[in-house]
Amino acid sequence: MDSGSLDGVTIRIKSLLDERSGALFHIAAAITIFAIWRIFGMPAPGSLGRIIPLSWFITGLIFGKGRISKLSPLLLTVFLVLSLLWAVSPSVEVLAVSFGLLGVFPGLLDASRKQAGILRAMIPLIPLIFLVPFGGDEPHYATITEDFISPGSGEFGNMRHQLGDPSENIPHHQKLFPALMIPGYPFSIAGVRLMNLLFALISILILSGIYRKSGLYDWKYISVLGILLLPGSSILGLVFPGWAALLFFLLGVRMVDSRRRTLWIVCISFILVLIKIRFVGISAGLLIALIISTERKKKIIYSTAMAGIVILGLLADLILLDGRVFWVRYGNIEFLKIVIIQPVFRFPEVLLAAGSSLVDIESGLIWKAPWIIAGLAGLPVLRRKHPDLLLWLGLPAIFYFFVLIIWSPNAWAGMPAPSGRMLLPLMPVFIASLGCMLKDRKVRILIWLSLGISAVYFAYPVLRFNHADGTDTLVSLIGGQYTSVTEWIPSALRLNLPIFSGWLVLTGLSVWLLIKRNRYSTFIIGIPLLLLAFVSGQSRLAWEAEDIPTEYRSYCSMYPENIDIGNRSHWNFSRERMLVMSNSEDAVILPVPENHDDTVRVSIAFRSLQSGSIPGIELSCGDFRDSIYVSSGIMERPEWVGYFRNRELGHVPENLEEILVQFSFVADTIDIIRISPLSVGDEYGEGHGIYLDRIEFR
Amino acid sequence: MMSAIRSDRLLLIGLASAALFLLRGISGFTVSWALLFTGISLIEKQNRITFISLITAGISLITGDANAGTALILAGSVFGIAGSDSLLPRVAFFASFSVILFEGSLTGILPLFIVSFPALLLKRERWRYSAIAGGIIAGLLICGLPGASAYRILVHDEVHAENAVIWPDPISANLNHPVVLLEAENMDKTDMFIEISAGGMRDSTLMGVIETGGQTHQILPGSNLFRIRETTFPVVITLTRKWQPFNHPVIWIQEAWTVSQSE
Fold first, then answer.
1. Which end of chain A has the smaller Cβ count within 10 Å, N or C?
2. DSSP string, B123-167
3. Among A204, A253, A223, A222, which Cα is nearest to A388's?
4. How far from each other are the two terminal CA atoms of chain B, in whole angstroms?
5. B6 touches chain A (CB under 8 A)
6. pLDDT at residue B142 is higher than 70
7. What is the rounded CA–CA span in Å between residue A374 and residue A439?
8. CA of A570: how far to CAs of A87, A168, A566, A632, B244, in Å?
9. How does DSSP assign B67-127, residue by residue?
10. So what's the pLDDT on residue A654?
11. What is the pLDDT of residue B1?
C-alpha cells in the first residue's frame, strides 16, 4: 500500500470518528460502565449491571451521525466518581446507578431530533421496562386478555377477583383494553407489555404530529421529553390503560382538522369510556371543545345530538350488553350519591386531593416531576401563541382531572400503582406549555432535575410504588429512617395544614416568578429549600408511630397488617396506619433527643381499644415510671356517611377517638424512654390493645 | 484577591453557614459542607460540573445517613477541584476534602487526597481530571474501595407469632451494609432456624459468620439452613468478605424463625 492510499484510509477513519463520535462514545461508555460495575463489585451485576450498559450500547447503535452530546461525558464522570463510593452507603449506590442511567438521556434527546427520532429515543428504554415487576393490575388485565383466547389457562396466574369488582363474574376492569392486547398474548408477559409500549410509541408519534402542526418549536424533542419527564416514564410499557387512552385522546385531537371530525371525536369519546370509565372526563372535554369550536348555528344541534348519543349509548349498554359497561358499576343510586356528596359535603377533601396532585409527598408532581412548575408557568404563553392547542389538549385534561378527584378524593392517585400514572392525560398540554418555556435557563434546570428523578425511578422501579401511608419510598431511601425531613414535607394523609398550604403557596410563587421571569426567583425558591435541607438533619423530636424503625421497637405490629390502601380507603377519619401494642412484650424504645431541657415532656397520641379490662400505657425512663389506664370511645359518624348507610360505626381502631397523654420527667443520665402497654395479652378479646399514632418530645 | 469576590456572595456564604451551624451545630460534616458551599459560591464562571457539586451538596443535607452525606460532600469537592476555573474555590474544595479526611468517617480516600493537592494547583482542567483519575486508581490499588469506617447495621423486622418469633421477609448484607441483626426480647435459650443464601464470589471460601452468644457459625457460598441451639439474642450476621474486583459478595437472609424446645 502506498503512502497516498494510507493517508486516504487515515483521513476516512478520522472523518468516521468525527462524524460518528457520538455513537462511538456511547458504545465506549457502555463498555466502561459494564467493566466498572464489575471492578467495583457493585450489586445486581446480572440485572442492573447489564441493562444499564445495554441502554448505553443501544443508544450508540441508534445514535447515527453526530457529535457527543454535551452532558453525556459529565454524567458518565459523575457515575464513575459516585460508583467508587457505592460501598459507603445504599443511598450513594442508588445515586451512582441513577447517574449511570441519566447519562443516556442527553443522547436520547439528541437522537430524537434526527430521522425517526422518536423511535430511536424509545428503543434504548425497552430493556429497562423488564426491571419492573409484573404486578398490581397488570396480571388482572392480562387474565382478561387470556379469557378471549384461552380461558383458564393460567398463563398470568389466573388473577380474577379483585377488591372493587361489582361481582365475582364481573371485574371492575373493562374489556376493551385487554382486547387490544390480544396480538401480544402469544408472547406472554413480554407480549402484552410490548403492546402497551406500542400504544405509547404511537401516542408520542401522534403527539409530535400535533405539536408540529401547531408550529411548536422543537416538536420532536419536546415529545420525547414527554416520555422521559413522567416519573420513571410512569407506566411506559406496563399493562395499564393510560397510554392506550392517551393514544385515542390524541387521535381525536389529531382529527380535529379532518372533514369528518365530529364523527371521529364522537367515536373516540365512546372508545375512551369503553377503555375505563374514568376517561369519561377526556370524552367530555373533547366533546365540549368540539362544540366550542363549531359555528354558532350548529352549537345547539351538536349539543342536542350528543346528549341523544349518550342516551342511546346508555340504552345500548343496558339492552345489548346487560349493562356491563356502565350500569352494573355506576348505574345505581349509590354512585349518584357519590357524585352529589363529594363536591357538596366533602368539598375540603376534594380540594385537598387537588392540592395533593401537586405537593403531596407520595403522589404530588413537584417532587417527582418538578418540571410541572414550568409547565404551569408556560400556560399563559401557550394560550397566547397556540390557543387551539390549549383548547384541545387542555380542556379534556381539566375535565379528566376534575372527574378523577371528585370521584375519588381519597384514592385518586391509584396507589400503589406507579405515581404519576393517573395524570398521564395531563401530560400533552403541560409538555406543550413547557415547550414554550424551554429557552429559560431555570426551566432547563427543572427539566434536568426531573430527568434525574426519572432516572432513579427507571433504575429502581420499586421506588415508584407508594402505599398511601404518608411516606415516600424514594425519600425514605435517600433520607433514611432517622431524618426529620418527613415532618416538613406535605402529606395529605398526615395532614399538617400550615405545612401543606405553605408548600402550595411556595409552588404558586415559583410558578408566578417563572411567568414574570424574575431574576431573583432562584434565591426566593432556593432559600426555603436550603432551610428545609438544614432542618431535616436535626435529631427527631416527633415520631409517627408507624415510622418507628425496627431497632426502636420490640415486636409490635401494624394495623392494618396489610399495607395496601384498599384496606383503609373506606375509613371515615384518618387513614394512617397505627402501631399496635397488644402483647406484654410489645414496646417502643426511643432515644431522648439531644440538647433537651432538664425536664423532658413526651406526648403520646393513641387509641385504646377495650375488649376486656381497660388497657393502659406506661412510660419509663430509668427510675421514672408512670402509667395511665384509658379506653377510647367511638367517634361521631360524619354526616355524609349517613347518606350511604345507616349502620353505626363499628368498634374498630379506625373509628375510635384519639387520646393524647403527656408525661413529664427529669432525665438525668438515662437517655432512652420505653413505652409499653398494660393489661394486654391473648386472654383479652379481639383487637384489645393500644394503637399508637404519634410520639412527640417537647 | 478578596476584593474580587463579590460582597453578595460573601453574604450568601456567611448566611448559609451561620444557618447550618445554628440548626445542626458544629461538626466535621457541617464544617466540610460550609467549605464546599463556599467553594461553589466563589466560582466565577458557573459550569455544569459545579452544578453537579451543588446537587451533591443539596442531597448530602437531606440524607439521614451520615456516611452518605460525607461521601456526597467528598464527591462534590472532587468535582469542584477538577471543574472550577480559579484557584480560590479550588482551595475551598480542597479544605472541605481535608475536613472529611480528618473527620475519619470514610476509609480509603488518602491517596485521592494526596493527589488532590497538586491537582488544585494545575491550571489546565484536563490535567486536573487526569491527576484525580490517577488518584482514584492509586487509591484502589493501595487501599481498595473507599468505605465507611463505622459499619451500617441493619436491624431486621421481627414478627411475634404464638410462642415463636419469625423474620419473614428476605434481607441482604452486602459491602455497604455488611451487618444484619436479629433481635428478639425474652427469647433467649430457644433454638432458631436461619435460611441463608450467599454468593457473588468466584470461589467457595468463607463468606461471613453468624454470631450468637459464644457461638459462631460459618457461612459458605450457596444455600444453607442453619439450626442454632440455645440462641442468645441479638444474632449478628456479618459479611466478612472485603472488596475484590469482579466479586459481588452478598448474603441473603431469606427467612428465620425461633422454635420452642419441645419441637
1. N
2. S-HHHHHHHHHHHHHHHHHHH-S-EESS--EEEPP-EEETTEEEE
3. A253
4. 78
5. no
6. yes
7. 11
8. 44, 20, 8, 20, 53
9. HHHHHHHHHHHHHHHHH-SSHHHHHHHHHHHHHHHHHT-EES-HHHHHHHHHHHH-S-HHH
10. 93
11. 47
Q: Is the peptide bond before A615 cis (omega within 30 degrees of 0)?
A: no
Q: Which of residues 530-549 of A touch B (CB under 8 A)?
A: 530-531, 533-538, 549
Alpha helices in A63-183 (DSSP H): 71-84, 90-102, 104-111, 117-122, 126-129, 138-149, 176-180
For residue A204, the distance in angstroms to the closest alpha carbon of chain B comes to 30
| Percent of residues in chain B assigned helix, strand, coil, to nearest 5 | 45, 25, 30
pLDDT, mean of residues B231-257: 93
Please write down the long-range contacts of A470-474, taking CB distance under 8 Å and 24 or more positions apart: A470/A361, A470/A362, A470/A494, A470/A544, A470/A546, A470/A576, A471/A361, A471/A362, A471/A547, A472/A361, A472/A362, A472/A367
| B146-175 residues touching A, CB cutoff 8 A | 146-148, 152, 155-160, 165, 174-175
Give the separation between CA A486 and CA A535, rounded to whole angstroms: 11
Q: How close, in Å, is residue A148 to chain B by CA atoms?
A: 37
Q: What mean pLDDT is predicted for residues A436-456?
A: 90
- CA A546/CA A527 separation, integer angstroms: 31
Please answer yes or no on whether B147 and A533 come within 8 Å at the CB atom: no
For B61, the closest of A88, A91, A537 (CB atoms) is A537
Q: What is the pLDDT of residues B84-140, one digit of tens each?
A: 888 999 999 999 999 999 999 999 999 999 999 999 999 898 999 999 999 999 999
Nearest CA in chain B to A561: B159
Question: What is the domain class of B153-259 according to CATH?
Answer: mainly beta
How far apart CA B237 and CA B106 sit, in angstroms, is 23
In the predicted structure, residue B263 carries a pLDDT above the cut 70: no
DSSP code string of A408-464:
-TTTTT-TTSPTTGGGGGGHHHHHHHHHTTTT-HHHHHHHHHHHHHHHHHHH-GGGG
- What SS3 state is found at B176? coil
Q: How far apart are CA A410 and CA A398, in angstroms?
A: 19
Q: Which of A34, A14, A131, A134 is nearest to A76 (CA)?
A: A34
Adjacent-strand bridge partners of B209: B218, B238
Domain ranges of chain A: 19-129, 138-479, 542-697
Chain A residue numbers touching B175 (CB-CB < 8 A): 41, 86-87
Q: Is the backbone of residue B103 left (phi > 0), alpha (psi -120 to 50) or beta?
A: alpha
| pLDDT given at position A2 | 66
Residue of A617, A607, A543, A544 whose CA lies nearest to A573: A607
B244 in contact with chain A, both atoms CB, cutoff 8 A: yes
Residue of A nearest to B82 (CA): A77
B219 membership: H or E segment, kind and range = strand B215-219
Interface ipTM: 0.93
Average pLDDT over residues B184-207: 89
Q: Where are the domains of chain B?
A: 2-148, 153-259
- Rounded to 10°, the helix A21-39/A104-111 angle is 160
Q: Give the per-residue pLDDT at A163.
A: 60
> Poorest-confidence range of A317-326, A422-431, A497-506?
A317-326
The pLDDT score that the predictor gives to residue B159 is 84
Among the listed residues A538, A372, A399, the one whose alpha carbon sits nearest the alpha carbon of residue A454: A372
Q: Which CATH number describes the domain made up of A542-697?
A: 2.60.120.260
Q: Residue B246 above 70 pLDDT?
A: yes
pLDDT, tens digit (0-9, with 9 covering 90-100), for A228-276: 988 766 778 899 999 999 999 999 999 998 988 989 999 999 999 989 9
Query: pLDDT digits over A125-177, tens only?
Result: 999 988 888 888 888 899 889 888 887 777 776 666 666 666 666 677 888 99
